[in-house]
Amino acid sequence: MEFFDTIIQISDSAVRLAIPLLLACLAGLFSERGGIFDIGLEGKMLAAAFLSAAVAAATGNVWLGLASGIGISVFLGLIHGVASITFRGDQLISGVAINFLAAGLTVVIGQAWFGLGGRTPPLSGSGRFANLEWPVADALQDVPVVGPIYAELISGHTVLVYVALLIVPLSWYVLFRTRFGLRLRAVGENPGAVDTAGISVVRLRYSAVIICGVLCGLAGAYLSTGLAAGFVKDMSAGRGFIALAALIFAKWRPVQALIACLLFGFLEAIANRYQSIDTGAFEIPVQFMQALPYILTVVILAGFIGKAIPPKAGGEAYVKER
Amino acid sequence: MEKLPKWADVILIPLINLVLAFLVSGLVILAIGKDPIVAITTMFDGAFGSTTGLGYTLYYATNFMFTGLAVAVAFHARIFNIGGEGQALLGGLGVALVCLAIDWPHWLVALPAAAIGGAVFGAAWAFIPAYLQAKRGSHIVITTIMFNFIAAALIGYLLVEVLKVPGSMDPASSNFPAGAHLPTFNEIFAVFGLNIFKHAPANVSFFVALICAFLFWVLMWHTRLGFAMRAFGQGERGAEYAGISPLKITVIAMMISGGLAGMMAINNVMGESERLILNATEGAGFIGIAVALMGRSHPVGVILASILFGFLYQGGGELSLWEGIPRDLVIVIQGLVILFTGALDGMIRRPLENLFLVLRKPTQNGAV
After folding, report:
1. Most buried residue, A262, A264, B210, B346, by most Cβ within 10 Å?
2. Is A291 on the interface with B (CB under 8 A)?
3. What confidence category does residue A305 fall into, taking pLDDT thresholds of 50, 70 and 90?
4. Is A89 close to B150, i.e. CB distance below 8 A?
């Protein structure tokens, strides 16, 4: 029974940890499907985490925080858009720049605003997203097996968790069942054809960048106002890059993205819980668990387990023929 | 016809980009209620006001020369090596293993051995992503990012579990033997009876970096291999028809790049901390990107840009000390430099090109 409880606790924590990855991963999905590489997911998430927590701390209203977080993330996304769509700059370099801007500005502004060495004051009450208790979760708590699964794993997360999970089928629907989705995928594969059909490549790519900004904003806000209670320096801690890894793992598909993020969330939950895992014969060090998502991504990218083929026109600016 | 005169391309555009980056940084300083003029004078005083400050500036600049050259080599072959950070971390391991291997009799023997150790480890760490890109088509930018994280985890593991001094809580290797101590600028100038660069970490590695910059220039513009790399960077197809193997060039360019990044460790690990510590690189691998972009991938440009960033790093430290502005401001400036010189290059370049075309027309008519 104790073993079962442990499994439930780890799974519960895996879900919590998977959500920011999932939102960022879906953000990257829209961007890259539209032909815009985005290694600035990390920076956008970090900036959103900071501003959400800062505004929530200043106003006591977490929804205002969320809106500000999304706002800053979209703004950074638009910088990426201007650089890579309008001025046809290098998308990778632009992403790197955004990561540095966010890493630096969050600390500089945070210190000037709150004077806490780059932290925001701890959030409580209406400054945070509360956990939603589902009906009869308490009553079912003592029922064996089903009770803990319902009460711990399904119930008791913040609203953003459920929103993120709903965005998965929504993304699938938008990308694969709507006209916009078809065009967006086309612009990532063959922008010339889209242009020939009289559809604006620039407008489609900007919408991809904006959707990406909104989702990264949600991811960041969840980090600082849902998962944690306040912002600390560098709190995104490479999650934007794990999200990129998950995106490759999922081969740019939404449902697979959910699975990949849950897997990576699970790895992180295990790494958090155990310092090292003793299998009896040998010991798996905690650092190996932390590095596993990255190692898996390299293996996947190398095509040893299936082949990950990115959108064909990804990373290239579209130059209209004259 | 060239759209821009050469001086505009190599001097004017980087300068305009730099001014833009500094203007935006000034606005950030204003926005947090500080005085940009005070800030810049504080930074300048801290970085150049004393020989100690200058010694720190040159110490940082040495790191950035290695990583900047590393990124620049790859840029010439049109490869974006974002993994300088991981390669420099591994280089630190290589340098540490060499330094701890035997009781070195003299630094003149230890330095070349350590430099080779760092370069080999850095190059090996760059080899895998290069091979995977050339042979299996995996995107080198993503793999090198992943390799940065893997390197950090690996070094963390080795320091905590293997290299740590028994009984110590500090995740660091034991101190290097005295024979592996590199002369600092202070010690070098003491030979001439001068007591300058006191307590500053700048050391002979600075001159090694300058030699590397010179060798970079020879390699790129005076050897067959350099020509092949540049040709490959200009156009993969054409290079292939000319008999240049993409696999070979990608792997060689990346290994030189990784080797240079790894050699940085003779400065920070061997020259400064004299043992291997956690996060020894402090982000220098990433600054190499800004340095290479700013310096237009030319060794002279890289040296100048490195000194600029050395100034920012050292000055930024003073800023946090005296003005209460976090040192992270430097990361903002770094981001802005990358944004303006790298990603938003077209924003300045195209209007300038048009301007030069307009300016040029009358003289051409006059010639006819």
Report:
1. A264
2. yes
3. low
4. no
pTM equals 0.90
Residue A283 phi/psi, 5-degree rounding, is -110, 135
Q: How many residues does the structure list for chain B?
A: 368
Q: Kindly determine whether residue B132 and residue A298, on different chains, have CB atoms separated by under 8 Å.
A: yes
Mutation for B interface: A294, A299, A318, most B CBs within 10 A:
A294
Among candidates A91, A97, A107 on the partner chain, residue whose Cβ is nearest the Cβ of B339: A97
| pLDDT for the residue A307 | 66
Domain ranges of chain A: 13-301
Provide the token pair at A153: 């794993």
Q: What is the pLDDT of residue A46?
A: 97
Distance from the B294 Cα atom to the nearest Cα atom in chain A, whole angstroms: 12
Interface contact A301-B132, CB threshold 8 A: yes
CA distance A106 to B256: 35
The answer, yes or no, to whether ipTM is higher than 0.85 is yes
CATH for A13-301 is: 1.10.3470
Please tell me the distance from the alpha carbon of residue B323 to that of residue B328, in angstroms, as a whole number.
13
User: How far off is chain B from A17, nearest CA to CA, in Å?
Assistant: 18
pLDDT at A116: 86
Evaluate whether A232 touches A103 at the Cβ level (below 8 Å). no
Rounded Cα distance, B26 and B3, in Å: 32
Closest partner residue to B150 (CB to CB) among A82, A112, A291 is: A291
